[in-house]
Design brief:
Helices cover 41% and strands 19% of the residues. It has 259 residues and is of the alpha/beta class. The chain has a single domain, classed as Rossmann fold (3-Layer(aba) Sandwich), CATH 3.40.50. It is globular, with a radius of gyration of 20 Å. The N and C termini lie far apart (52 Å).
Protein backbone atom coordinates (compact mmCIF):
# COMPACT_ATOMS: atom_id res chain seq x y z
CA UNK A 1 0.00 0.00 0.00
CA UNK A 2 2.89 2.33 0.85
CA UNK A 3 4.50 1.71 -2.56
CA UNK A 4 1.16 2.27 -4.31
CA UNK A 5 0.78 5.61 -2.55
CA UNK A 6 4.23 6.66 -3.71
CA UNK A 7 3.40 5.63 -7.29
CA UNK A 8 0.18 7.64 -7.29
CA UNK A 9 2.01 10.70 -5.95
CA UNK A 10 4.67 10.37 -8.65
CA UNK A 11 2.05 10.05 -11.40
CA UNK A 12 0.25 13.18 -10.17
CA UNK A 13 3.56 15.06 -10.06
CA UNK A 14 4.43 14.03 -13.63
CA UNK A 15 0.92 14.78 -14.89
CA UNK A 16 1.28 18.44 -13.94
CA UNK A 17 4.69 19.57 -15.21
CA UNK A 18 4.09 23.16 -14.09
CA UNK A 19 4.20 21.91 -10.51
CA UNK A 20 7.58 20.35 -11.18
CA UNK A 21 9.07 23.36 -12.95
CA UNK A 22 7.32 26.45 -11.58
CA UNK A 23 10.21 27.32 -9.28
CA UNK A 24 12.93 26.37 -11.74
CA UNK A 25 14.94 29.20 -13.33
CA UNK A 26 15.69 27.37 -16.56
CA UNK A 27 12.00 26.51 -16.94
CA UNK A 28 11.12 30.19 -16.51
CA UNK A 29 13.64 31.09 -19.23
CA UNK A 30 12.29 28.35 -21.51
CA UNK A 31 8.65 29.29 -20.85
CA UNK A 32 6.35 29.78 -23.84
CA UNK A 33 4.97 32.83 -22.00
CA UNK A 34 8.01 34.81 -23.09
CA UNK A 35 7.85 37.06 -26.14
CA UNK A 36 9.64 35.37 -29.10
CA UNK A 37 11.62 38.52 -30.00
CA UNK A 38 12.93 38.56 -26.43
CA UNK A 39 14.00 34.92 -26.50
CA UNK A 40 16.36 35.48 -29.43
CA UNK A 41 18.38 37.92 -27.28
CA UNK A 42 19.20 35.21 -24.70
CA UNK A 43 22.51 34.42 -26.40
CA UNK A 44 23.70 37.96 -25.63
CA UNK A 45 22.02 38.53 -22.25
CA UNK A 46 22.66 35.16 -20.61
CA UNK A 47 19.70 35.26 -18.20
CA UNK A 48 20.39 31.91 -16.52
CA UNK A 49 24.02 32.73 -15.76
CA UNK A 50 23.22 36.32 -14.77
CA UNK A 51 20.36 35.59 -12.36
CA UNK A 52 22.29 32.65 -10.90
CA UNK A 53 25.29 34.92 -10.33
CA UNK A 54 23.00 37.38 -8.51
CA UNK A 55 21.76 34.41 -6.40
CA UNK A 56 18.09 35.12 -7.14
CA UNK A 57 15.79 32.52 -5.58
CA UNK A 58 12.05 32.00 -6.27
CA UNK A 59 10.97 33.01 -2.75
CA UNK A 60 12.67 36.41 -2.91
CA UNK A 61 11.12 39.86 -2.98
CA UNK A 62 12.92 41.55 -5.89
CA UNK A 63 12.88 45.11 -7.24
CA UNK A 64 13.67 45.50 -10.94
CA UNK A 65 14.69 49.08 -11.69
CA UNK A 66 13.40 50.56 -14.94
CA UNK A 67 12.26 47.33 -16.62
CA UNK A 68 11.44 49.02 -19.94
CA UNK A 69 9.44 46.62 -22.08
CA UNK A 70 9.88 43.84 -19.55
CA UNK A 71 12.65 41.69 -21.04
CA UNK A 72 13.79 40.45 -17.63
CA UNK A 73 10.35 40.94 -16.07
CA UNK A 74 8.99 38.08 -18.19
CA UNK A 75 11.53 35.72 -16.64
CA UNK A 76 11.32 37.06 -13.09
CA UNK A 77 7.51 37.08 -13.01
CA UNK A 78 7.51 33.44 -14.07
CA UNK A 79 10.26 32.47 -11.63
CA UNK A 80 9.29 34.32 -8.44
CA UNK A 81 6.50 32.67 -6.44
CA UNK A 82 4.70 33.42 -3.18
CA UNK A 83 6.11 34.59 -0.83
CA UNK A 84 8.35 35.93 -3.60
CA UNK A 85 7.33 39.14 -5.36
CA UNK A 86 8.51 41.25 -8.28
CA UNK A 87 8.35 45.03 -7.82
CA UNK A 88 8.78 46.76 -11.17
CA UNK A 89 10.03 50.32 -10.65
CA UNK A 90 8.99 51.84 -13.96
CA UNK A 91 8.97 55.40 -15.29
CA UNK A 92 6.93 57.65 -13.01
CA UNK A 93 3.18 57.57 -13.52
CA UNK A 94 2.99 61.36 -13.79
CA UNK A 95 6.03 61.73 -16.08
CA UNK A 96 5.71 64.58 -18.59
CA UNK A 97 7.80 62.91 -21.30
CA UNK A 98 5.81 61.26 -24.11
CA UNK A 99 8.25 58.35 -24.37
CA UNK A 100 8.13 57.72 -20.61
CA UNK A 101 4.32 57.84 -20.56
CA UNK A 102 4.01 55.48 -23.52
CA UNK A 103 6.50 53.02 -22.06
CA UNK A 104 4.81 52.98 -18.64
CA UNK A 105 1.34 52.54 -20.19
CA UNK A 106 2.57 49.72 -22.42
CA UNK A 107 4.16 47.92 -19.47
CA UNK A 108 1.01 48.28 -17.36
CA UNK A 109 -1.03 46.82 -20.23
CA UNK A 110 1.39 43.89 -20.55
CA UNK A 111 1.10 43.12 -16.83
CA UNK A 112 -2.69 43.49 -16.72
CA UNK A 113 -3.34 41.13 -19.63
CA UNK A 114 -1.44 38.06 -18.42
CA UNK A 115 -2.03 36.14 -15.18
CA UNK A 116 1.69 35.38 -15.08
CA UNK A 117 2.09 38.91 -13.69
CA UNK A 118 -0.36 38.49 -10.80
CA UNK A 119 2.60 38.55 -8.42
CA UNK A 120 3.99 41.82 -9.82
CA UNK A 121 3.62 45.31 -8.36
CA UNK A 122 4.42 48.49 -10.29
CA UNK A 123 5.87 51.53 -8.52
CA UNK A 124 7.45 54.79 -9.66
CA UNK A 125 11.20 54.72 -10.28
CA UNK A 126 11.61 57.92 -8.24
CA UNK A 127 9.72 56.48 -5.26
CA UNK A 128 11.09 54.77 -2.16
CA UNK A 129 10.60 51.53 -4.14
CA UNK A 130 9.43 49.50 -1.14
CA UNK A 131 9.15 49.61 2.65
CA UNK A 132 12.53 50.18 4.27
CA UNK A 133 14.49 46.96 4.74
CA UNK A 134 11.85 44.81 3.06
CA UNK A 135 13.36 43.44 -0.18
CA UNK A 136 15.93 40.73 -0.82
CA UNK A 137 17.38 42.04 -4.07
CA UNK A 138 17.42 45.08 -6.35
CA UNK A 139 18.44 44.53 -9.97
CA UNK A 140 19.03 46.79 -12.93
CA UNK A 141 19.86 45.87 -16.50
CA UNK A 142 21.43 48.35 -18.96
CA UNK A 143 20.12 51.50 -17.28
CA UNK A 144 22.97 53.33 -15.55
CA UNK A 145 23.81 55.46 -18.59
CA UNK A 146 20.31 56.97 -18.38
CA UNK A 147 20.79 58.04 -14.75
CA UNK A 148 24.30 59.52 -14.69
CA UNK A 149 24.31 62.37 -12.21
CA UNK A 150 21.87 63.18 -9.38
CA UNK A 151 19.27 60.66 -10.55
CA UNK A 152 21.70 57.78 -10.05
CA UNK A 153 22.43 59.01 -6.54
CA UNK A 154 18.71 59.09 -5.74
CA UNK A 155 17.96 55.65 -7.20
CA UNK A 156 20.96 54.02 -5.51
CA UNK A 157 20.03 55.61 -2.17
CA UNK A 158 16.44 54.37 -2.41
CA UNK A 159 17.65 50.93 -3.43
CA UNK A 160 19.91 50.72 -0.39
CA UNK A 161 17.09 51.85 1.88
CA UNK A 162 14.64 49.26 0.48
CA UNK A 163 17.03 46.32 0.87
CA UNK A 164 17.26 44.08 3.90
CA UNK A 165 20.69 43.88 5.58
CA UNK A 166 22.65 41.42 3.47
CA UNK A 167 20.40 42.16 0.48
CA UNK A 168 21.72 41.93 -3.07
CA UNK A 169 22.26 44.81 -5.49
CA UNK A 170 22.95 43.53 -9.01
CA UNK A 171 24.02 45.68 -11.96
CA UNK A 172 24.39 44.85 -15.64
CA UNK A 173 25.54 47.79 -17.77
CA UNK A 174 27.30 48.65 -21.03
CA UNK A 175 30.98 48.79 -20.04
CA UNK A 176 33.09 51.78 -21.02
CA UNK A 177 36.85 51.68 -21.37
CA UNK A 178 38.67 52.67 -18.15
CA UNK A 179 39.25 56.42 -17.95
CA UNK A 180 36.21 57.37 -20.06
CA UNK A 181 34.94 60.80 -19.01
CA UNK A 182 31.48 61.34 -17.56
CA UNK A 183 30.57 63.48 -20.57
CA UNK A 184 31.57 60.69 -22.96
CA UNK A 185 29.67 58.11 -20.87
CA UNK A 186 26.50 60.18 -21.28
CA UNK A 187 27.10 60.52 -25.01
CA UNK A 188 28.10 56.92 -25.75
CA UNK A 189 25.84 54.97 -23.39
CA UNK A 190 28.83 53.13 -21.92
CA UNK A 191 29.71 53.49 -18.20
CA UNK A 192 33.00 52.57 -16.53
CA UNK A 193 33.09 49.87 -13.87
CA UNK A 194 34.96 52.31 -11.64
CA UNK A 195 32.14 54.86 -11.78
CA UNK A 196 29.43 52.27 -11.07
CA UNK A 197 31.37 50.93 -8.09
CA UNK A 198 32.16 54.44 -6.82
CA UNK A 199 28.49 55.52 -6.76
CA UNK A 200 27.32 52.24 -5.22
CA UNK A 201 29.93 52.42 -2.45
CA UNK A 202 29.10 56.08 -1.89
CA UNK A 203 25.60 54.98 -0.87
CA UNK A 204 26.76 52.22 1.45
CA UNK A 205 26.94 49.16 -0.77
CA UNK A 206 29.80 46.71 -0.44
CA UNK A 207 31.27 45.49 -3.72
CA UNK A 208 31.43 41.70 -3.62
CA UNK A 209 32.54 40.47 -7.04
CA UNK A 210 31.98 40.72 -10.77
CA UNK A 211 31.26 38.28 -13.59
CA UNK A 212 32.23 38.18 -17.26
CA UNK A 213 29.08 36.31 -18.33
CA UNK A 214 27.95 39.34 -20.34
CA UNK A 215 31.33 40.34 -21.75
CA UNK A 216 31.79 40.83 -25.49
CA UNK A 217 35.41 41.29 -26.63
CA UNK A 218 34.22 42.13 -30.16
CA UNK A 219 32.74 45.41 -28.93
CA UNK A 220 35.19 48.24 -29.74
CA UNK A 221 32.95 50.94 -28.16
CA UNK A 222 33.79 53.61 -30.75
CA UNK A 223 30.67 53.83 -32.90
CA UNK A 224 29.00 56.85 -34.57
CA UNK A 225 25.82 56.50 -32.51
CA UNK A 226 27.33 55.07 -29.36
CA UNK A 227 26.11 51.77 -27.96
CA UNK A 228 22.85 52.21 -29.86
CA UNK A 229 24.76 51.54 -33.09
CA UNK A 230 24.85 47.87 -32.09
CA UNK A 231 21.88 45.49 -32.02
CA UNK A 232 19.14 45.45 -31.03
CA UNK A 233 18.84 49.21 -31.78
CA UNK A 234 20.94 49.41 -34.96
CA UNK A 235 20.54 53.20 -35.12
CA UNK A 236 22.41 53.38 -38.46
CA UNK A 237 19.74 51.13 -39.97
CA UNK A 238 21.19 49.47 -43.10
CA UNK A 239 24.56 51.22 -42.96
CA UNK A 240 27.15 48.54 -42.07
CA UNK A 241 24.30 46.46 -40.64
CA UNK A 242 26.05 43.12 -41.17
CA UNK A 243 29.17 44.44 -39.46
CA UNK A 244 27.25 45.43 -36.32
CA UNK A 245 25.19 42.27 -36.29
CA UNK A 246 28.44 40.29 -36.36
CA UNK A 247 29.67 42.21 -33.29
CA UNK A 248 26.45 41.49 -31.43
CA UNK A 249 25.19 43.30 -28.33
CA UNK A 250 27.47 45.44 -26.17
CA UNK A 251 30.25 44.40 -23.84
CA UNK A 252 28.69 44.51 -20.35
CA UNK A 253 29.86 44.60 -16.78
CA UNK A 254 27.99 42.40 -14.30
CA UNK A 255 28.54 43.62 -10.75
CA UNK A 256 27.36 42.16 -7.44
CA UNK A 257 27.01 44.33 -4.34
CA UNK A 258 25.55 43.72 -0.90
CA UNK A 259 23.96 45.90 1.75
Amino acid sequence: MKNLSKLVSLLIFLSFPSIATSHDLQAAIDSEDRTPKNVIRDEFRNPYETLSFFEIKPHMKVVELSPGGGWYSEILANYLHDPGLLIAAHFDKDSQGAYFKKSRTSFEKKVAEDSMYDNVEIVDLSSNLADEGSVDAVLTFRNLHNWLGPQMDSIFANSYKALKPGGIFGIVEHRAKPGTSLEQMKKSGYVTEAHAIEIAEKHGFKFITKSEHNANPKDTKDYPRGVWTLPPNLRLKELDRDKYLAIGESDRMTLLFMK
